[in-house]
Amino acid sequence: MKVLRSLSDYVCWKKTLSSSKSIGFVPTMGALHDGHLSLVEASTKNAEITVVSIFINPKQFSENEDFNTYPRDLENDLNKLKDYNVSAVFVPSINDIYETEEPAIIFDHPFAQTLEGASRPHFFPGVIDVVSRLFNIVQPNYAHFGRKDAQQLILIQKMVDAADYPITIIPGETVREPGGLAMSSRNEYLTSNQKRELGIIWESLGVAKKMLDNGDLCANRICRAIENTLKKISRLKIDYVSIVDIENLKEVSGDVRGDVLISLAVSVGGVRLIDNIFYAY
């Protein structure tokens, strides 16, 4: 496993590869957990070469967010990746990624202004910018992203389509803590007891699924049921609960029909947590 600590290192290493070999790519911000590693494992099965990047992207953090305190443990991350058939780990500097201020592509979509985009307007422009730059550097055939970040996954697929990147986006299922909380690097801010308690987030989405399974299709009633479940933890602050039609990416106002994304964002003790389920009716 090569550890490539600069853009020039990556470019030199890539020149040694046969152009006939497929490259799978897993972009991360480090603090690797089993969710990341499931994407790495999928890549190693899908492509002949797997590249993992570790880069904490400053452009997707606002001034009052946790860029400076975001979990960092490169040595531990590299030790975890040694258990997988990873060809290279790309650990670029900020200057490597942002050597020019000009964005790699110009991409905007109305869906980026909703949900996470409404609460964190800086977030998706920063994500799209860094992912497009990484795609241009790594030049993968496949890229793996988790369904936990569902809105991000949808927007990256649309960006790939709009920019005509020759890249197949492969979603990975959400990996969960024993109590159901979706795995996230920010879970490191939580105690073991908090992680167990916050399984109620997954429980609330289960309430929504059960209602739909039983034929209760009213989107507003389902959202209220999710909120009522979440309110069992008084310290938990709800940002949004949403049901979006996957076809048009608009909020469902009446009954649920077709494929939908049910998503939510909450915070506890300053830690922001998101989760979702896809549902086909």
Notes on the structure:
This protein has 281 residues and is of the alpha/beta class. It contains 10 helices and 10 strands. The strands form 2 sheets. A 6-stranded parallel beta sheet has the order 1-4-3-2-5-6, with helices on both faces. Helix 2 (34-46) links the parallel strand 2 and strand 3. The relative contact order is 0.13.
Unreliable spans are none
Which structural class matches the secondary elements? alpha/beta
Largest sheet: 6 strands, parallel
- Strand residue content: 15-25%
Please provide the ordered H/E string of secondary-structure elements.
EHEHEHEHHHEHEHHHEEEE
Oligomer: single chain
Q: Count of DSSP helices? A: 10
- With strands numbered from the N-terminus, the spatial order across the biggest sheet is 1-4-3-2-5-6
Mean pLDDT score, rounded? 96
Helix content: 25-40%
* Radius of gyration, in angstroms, nearest whole number: 19 Å
Write down the overall geometry.
globular
Overview features:
globular; 281 residues
Provide the fold topology.
Layout: E1 2-4, H1 7-14, E2 23-28, H2 34-46, E3 49-54, H3 74-81, E4 88-90, H4 94-97, H5 116-119, H6 123-138, E5 142-146, H7 150-163, E6 168-172, H8 192-197, H9 200-213, H10 219-230, E7 237-245, E8 250-251, E9 259-268, E10 271-280
Parallel strand pairs: 1-4, 2-3, 2-5, 3-4, 5-6
Antiparallel strand pairs: 7-8, 7-9, 9-10
Helix pairs in contact: 6-7, 9-10
